[in-house]
Design a protein that fits this description.
Structural Genomics Hypothetical 15.5 Kd Protein In mrcA-pckA Intergenic Region, Chain A, 3 domains, five-stranded mixed beta sheet, alpha/beta, six-stranded mixed beta sheet, Rossmann fold, Tyrosyl-Transfer RNA Synthetase
C-alpha cells in the first residue's frame, strides 16, 4: 500500500513537519495519530474539513486515528489565530456542541471495532489538580519560548489573558496523555497549531524520554484570497439545519475554475490520476468536473441519497443532464439524471402578463397549492424553506416578477422535495 505521507503530500495537505523523512519512515507501519477539535460551535464548517479528511486518509491507509473532542480545552479557549479572546462557553454549551460534532465525524471515520477512537479530553483535564500540574508539567515550559510562539506573539499587543496563556500547556498534556495511554506518536493540526504541537512533542521528550512527531496543514484560501468555507461572508456548515444540503451543494458547484483541481484533491477521495486530468478540461467539461466535486463533497457530508436529491433539484428546471463517464470516472455520481423528475413536476401555464406587475412569493406558493394556506406559505419562507429557481427566498413578501424567469419558466420549491413549475404561455404557437 502506498505510504499515506506521499498521499497527503500529493494532495497538498502538508505544510510543516518535524521531519519529512522521519515521518515517512514512521508511517511505513501502522501507528496511532490524533487531531483535536474544540467544540466551540455546534457544527463543523467547510473550512474544518482539511483535518477531518486527513484523519480519514490515515485510516484508509491502515493507521488508527484519534479524534479528540476538546470539552476540557474548549472551556479555556485557544488563542491561536484570534485577535481577541474567544467568547467563554458554559459547560452545558460545550457538552451540547461536542455531541453534535461527534455525529458529523462518524461520516468520515469508522469508529467501530477499535479502528479509530473518539475521545474527550475532559476525562483527564478536569481531574487535574493545580499544584501537582504546575510541579509535574508546568516546570517543563519556558515562558520565553511560549511568548515567542505565533499565537502568543500576535496577541501580546491586543491582550492575552492568563487562562488563554495556559492553553498550550493543556494541549501539550493531551499529547503526553495519549502517548502514554494510546501509544499515539503523531499529532496533526492546522498551521496555527504548530507551536502547540511542538510543545507536546517536547513535553513527551522531557517527561517520557520518548519520540513523537507533528504535521500541520495549510490554511486553505480560495483563488480570490477568501477563507475557505464561506459564501457571501457566512460560514458553510455541515449541519443540515444551518446549511441545507442544496445550499451546501451550491457552494461547491460555484467555486472558481482555478479552485476545482485543488478542492478535488482536498475534499474528495477520487484518485489523483483522475483529478490531474481535470487541468486539461475547459468549458462544459470543466463545469461537469465542478458538478462531480459538488456531488462528492455533498455525499461525504450528507450521504448518497441526499446528494442525488440535490443533484436532481439542481437539474429540475432544465430536464436531462448527462455527465461524460470519462470525467472523474470513480465518482458515484449518476451520469444521466433529471429527465423523469423534470417530467413529473406539477406544472402551471400562465399568461405572459401575469408576472409583469409581480406577485408576493407567499401568494404564489399558495396559489399553486405548494402550501395549504397563505399563512403556511409565510411560515415556510420565514423558516428558509421557500425557493425560486433553487434560490432561497429571504422574505415572504418578496415580489416574484418576469425578471425571475429562466427560459420562460419558474421552479418553485417548498422544503427539500416538493416542487412546482410555472411556464409562461407561448403566444407564438
Amino acid at each position: 500500500m502506498e505510504n499515506v505521507f506521499d498521499i497527503l503530500k500529493q494532495r497538498g495537505f502538508i505544510e510543516q513537519t518535524t521531519g519529512d523523512e522521519a515521518i515517512f519512515q514512521l508511517l511505513k507501519e501502522p501507528i496511532t495519530c490524533y487531531i483535536g477539535f474544540d467544540p466551540t460551535a455546534s457544527s463543523f464548517h467547510a473550512g474544518n474539513l482539511i483535518p477531518i479528511m486527513a484523519l480519514a486518509h490515515m485510516q484508509r491507509h491502515g493507521h488508527r486515528p484519534i479524534a479528540l473532542v476538546g470539552d476540557g480545552t474548549a472551556l479555556v479557549g485557544d488563542p491561536s489565530g484570534k485577535t481577541e479572546m474567544r467568547q467563554m462557553l458554559t459547560p452545558r454549551q460545550v457538552n451540547r456542541n461536542a455531541k453534535a460534532l461527534k455525529k458529523q465525524l462518524v461520516r468520515f471515520v469508522n469508529f467501530k471495532q477499535g479502528e479509530a477512537a473518539l475521545l474527550n479530553n475532559a476525562k483527564w483535564l478536569k481531574q487535574l489538580r493545580y499544584i501537582p500540574f504546575l510541579r509535574d508539567i508546568g516546570r517543563h515550559f519556558s515562558v520565553n519560548r511560549m511568548l515567542a510562539t505565533e499565537s502568543c506573539r500576535l496577541r501580546i499587543e491586543t491582550g492575552l489573558s492568563f487562562i488563554e496563556f495556559n492553553y498550550s500547556l493543556l494541549q501539550a498534556y493531551d499529547f503526553l496523555y495519549l502517548y502514554r495511554t494510546e501509544n499515539c506518536v503523531l499529532q496533526m493540526g492546522g498551521s496555527d497549531q504548530w507551536g502547540n504541537i511542538v510543545a507536546g512533542i517536547d513535553l513527551i521528550r522531557r517527561v517520557e524520554q520518548g519520540t513523537a512527531h507533528g504535521i500541520t496543514f495549510p490554511l486553505v484560501l480560495t483563488s480570490s484570497g477568501d477563507k475557505m468555507g464561506k459564501t457571501a461572508g457566512e460560514a458553510v456548515w455541515l449541519d443540515t439545519d444551518l446549511t441545507p444540503p442544496y445550499d451546501y451543494y451550491q457552494f461547491w458547484i460555484n467555486v472558481a475554475d482555478d479552485d476545482v483541481i485543488r478542492f478535488l484533491r482536498f475534499f474528495t477521495f477520487l484518485p489523483m490520476t483522475e483529478i490531474n486530468v481535470v487541468r486539461n478540461l475547459e468549458g462544459s467539461d470543466l463545469n461537469a468536473a465542478k458538478t462531480v466535486l459538488a456531488f462528492e463533497a455533498t455525499r461525504l457530508v450528507h450521504g448518497q441519497r441526499d446528494a442525488e436529491d440535490v443533484l436532481r433539484a439542481s437539474y429540475g428546471l432544465f430536464g436531462m443532464r448527462t455527465i461524460d463517464p470519462q470525467i472523474l470516472p470513480s465518482s458515484t455520481i449518476p451520469r444521466d439524471i433529471g429527465s423523469k423528475e423534470a417530467e413529473s413536476i406539477p406544472t402551471t401555464i400562465i399568461e405572459p402578463d401575469c408576472l409583469r406587475r409581480g406577485i408576493p412569493a407567499f401568494e404564489l406558493f399558495d396559489k399553486v397549492n405548494l402550501c395549504a394556506s397563505r399563512g403556511a406559505a409565510r411560515r415556510l419562507i420565514q423558516q428558509g424553506g421557500g425557493y425560486v429557481n433553487n434560490r432561497r427566498i429571504k422574505a415572504f413578501d418578496t415580489m416574484i416578477t418576469d425578471n425571475d424567469l429562466n427560459k420562460h419558466e419558474l421552479l418553485l420549491r417548498a422544503g427539500k422535495k416538493r416542487y412546482h413549475r410555472i411556464k409562461v404561455k407561448d403566444l407564438s404557437s
